[in-house]
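Thread title: Can someone regenerate the structure for this chain?

I was given the following input by a collaborator and told the matching structure tokens would be attached. They weren't. Posting the sequence so someone can regenerate them.
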Amino acid sequence: MDINKIKTLGELKAAGYQSKSIKEEVRDNLIKQLQDKSDIYKGVIGFEDSVLPDMERAILSKHNILLLGLRGQAKTRIARQTTQLLDEYIPVVTGSDLNDDPLNPLSSSAIDLIAKHGDDTPIHWMSSEDRYVEKLATPDVSIADLVGDVDPIKAATLKLPYSDPRVIHYGLIPRSHRSIFVLNELPDLQARIQVSLFNILQEGDIQIRGFKLRLPLDILFIFTANPEDYTNRGSIITPLKDRIESQILTHYPKTIEIAKSITKQEIRVSEDIKEKIVIPELIRDLLEYIVFEARESEFIDEKSGVSARLSITALENLYSTIERRMLMNNESTGTARISDFWGVIPSITGKVELVYEGEQEGPYNVALFLFSGAIKKLFTEYFEHPDAAIKREEKDPYGTLRAWFGAGNEFDIMNESSHKDYEKLLEAVPGLKKVITNRNIDDAHTHLFMEFLLHGLAEHEVISKEIMKRSLTFRDPLANMFNEMN
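Best answer:
Regenerated them for you:
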């Protein structure tokens, strides 16, 4: 159908156009996408076997949908990408209030236009992008905002009584006729405002003041919400929940690999910076381990959740930390270090909601606890546990390091030291490189793993680690104690 040639209602009829409800429209397009094995929700990673099949089943059932999950679980992204299931264009009566279908007009303005002009009624074509309406539910949202109200200025201008439907100023929901309407953070909507949605969802009615209105609105509703017990801000009232046919539970990435894929996809770092800075897989793994630690931490409210935005902003800050170090040392390239993670702490402290015990520790210390826990878990994926190593009859691989630190030696590293100084300092620790050499590690990342080994031994209490503002110090705790006594 050549939409450029169809400008009137008569031409639309002659072309044989047939109207569909929006739920039939997205259902038919989904069927085609599934048969063609097309990727409907591009960029939504980790939901292939859970959330997305539930979405597809709900659409096939012509349901309104509630996406329920903690923050940072791609709920809004899924809602926005559902527009890909809309037809590219649909016909609309030009000058109508509610995106009226020329073959099934709804508003009084469209009905009057068709009665006056007949087949000469002008139409225009509305794109799928214009058929998406999104509203963030806040406590100050009113019924007038969502549903509508009487417009006294319109009544006075047109010299109409308030009983005339033409004096109504329609809200967002009626103006979303034949569109997808997304209401984010539904529990934040006051209970009395949620009640106004009952009839719209069930019968398609809207009630404005004292008007007797029956508008069979054609809308696909998608609501997003955190679990009801997330905070004391509010909840979804039970009768409204009952009217939303499909409730779909979202979740956080279940594996480190999925989490890394999401972070890599979402970070906003220029290609120029990515070419200059190397982030080894060890560092990417460690960053995601921090997020997984946060979701299990006793200091963080599990009902609040830990958004995927934590790892995204943390990786962006990591790039910036390395870039700053490169600028300070006049270096053209850089590689991530373990000590660079001190630059991502601001990305952690602002992304977690602490319980009472966490507040007592303080956000900074909680971030350090997460960092320590992540290193401890990741360490045993690359190196033998120090306790297991010392119990074996064979030679302890960490024996030289234990002896060197036990003799009272210390290792200091500046966070902003140059690449040459960084390598020189690590090379000076006896037995450190030998432990790395015996493992299958890329030569380019040898020094990173040497530093990682020191951090891992510190977390397993073989040596101690002291964190200063601009440096780290590793030492043997007992030797240090005796030195202080002497």
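The domain at 9-249 is CATH 3.40.50.300 (Rossmann fold).
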